[in-house]
Fold Class I SAM-dependent methyltransferase.
Amino acid sequence: MGIYEEHVLPRMVDLTCGSSFLNPLRHRACAELSGRVVEIGFGSGRNVPFYPETVTSVSAVEPAGLGWKMAAERLAASKVPVERAGLDGQALPFDDNSFESALSTWTLCTIPDVSAALRELRRVLTPGGTLHFVEHGLAPDPGIQIWQRRFNPLQKTIAGGCHLNRDMRAIVEDAGFELSSIDQFYQPGVPRPWGAMTVAVATSA
């Protein structure tokens, strides 16, 4: 990783995704987690305060060392044991059927080979295990999609490969997950090209 990816981008992500007005979405994504959890794109640990009591442990996958350091205070206050256990969501260092739940918050937009990451999550989840996620992505309105396509090259350049227009429902279903609940909407207070949100739970076949 370069200086920008290691030292600048984690702070930028923490600033943009750490806003308190996004906390209700984090709460929704985490609310039904249970058992052993793998979290991809752990970042600076913004989800830690929202882990429910039904979670027994969290294995955090995060490439940026700075993000892990920034999580120190939240980790110290956590009632759930959290370990940094991987660097790359596309190649998870876990055995098959290791986790009951998986968590992703604003991460699937950025992983270069998102299909590989989702296949890995299916592999490490137990049969019937659940993927819980909140992501921004492809807007439902064609007019907004035009702007997403226009902004996407710049977005990827300055935001570490983040895509504005990934179809989150399609990529999750194409990876073999079955969506058991899904809510898609525009987040108030966010410009629509960036504010098309999906909060969902998907089950591993």
Q: What stands out?
A: The longest helix spans residues 142-158. The mean pLDDT is 92. The chain is about 35% helix and 25% strand. Helices lie at 3-17, 23-30, 65-70, 72-77, 114-124, 142-158, 168-174, 192-195.
